[in-house]
Amino acid sequence: MQTALHIVATPIGNEGDLSPRALDVLRSAHIIAAEDTRRTGVLLKSHAIDAKLVAYHDHNEEQAAETVCAAIQRGEDAVLVCDAGTPAVSDPGYRLVRMAQDLGIAVVPVPGPCAAIVALSGSGIASDRFFFEGFLPAKPRARRDRIEALKVYPHSLIFYEAPHRFADTLLDMVDVFVGGREAALARELTKTYETIRRTSLAELLDWVNRDPDQQKGEIVLIVSPAKSDEQKLLSKEALLLLTTLAEYVPARKAAKLVSSVTGVKTSILYDIIVAQRNT
């Protein structure tokens, strides 16, 4: 294994999903940066892997990143993992990657499971164009405002959500997205109680309220693209104007200019520009 920062995807539930290559890299590592060292320690112990574990999370990321990069510069092999799935997706891992790159350290991704992609592949919802939102804001007002901003997106939407907020999030979506829009709940993927169900948002909300077990565990929610009548909030001409302006002026300025013409909120227009750039 070359001296580098290896980004290793770990199982999201079923340990059989740890690839032979990922296992080889973990066994060769001198230092492993992990979101939760106790959880990662269990995985390593099950494969008889003995490497130095360094906690790397939101509260110590800069110091931990410096520790990991210094180890690599001394000639040690380093690995970044997260609690489950692919590092740097909805976690602070990308900051360590940036530091390593800025120091001239090679970064080597080792592919593997990612809950968002696993959920999308089994959802039955259009997967040709999608927007990964991750976790919505925890505060009710901010969460609803964000859902409002996503209402006109012409892409499938992927969300992560905490169990204790899931029913409230669905309630907001039923109200804002219109209850008939299709969605898929993907819960506890690859685990014993794996559940994937595709139906309307309104029926999904009713189902999880009747069965509290569906509000437990790791949750991914896929929502279908905005319907044509919802997309009418922004005409084809206005969308073309927005897209064209965004090529020549900053995104926020483009959004503000088009808002003054169409009356559509600047925040919604700005989010559309961001979504287009990320697809």
Descriptive notes:
The protein is α/β, with parallel strands linked by helices and 279 residues long. Helices cover 45% and strands 17% of the residues. The chain has 12 helices and 10 strands. The strands form 2 sheets. It has a 5-stranded parallel sheet with strand order 3-2-4-1-5, sandwiched between helices. Strands 6-7-10-8-9 form a 5-stranded mixed sheet. β8 (182-187) and β9 (195-200) form a beta hairpin. α6 (140-150) packs across α7, α7 (163-178) runs antiparallel to α8 (201-210) and α10 (236-246) packs antiparallel against α11 (251-262).
Brief account:
This protein is of the alpha/beta class and 279 residues long. It contains 12 helices and 10 strands.
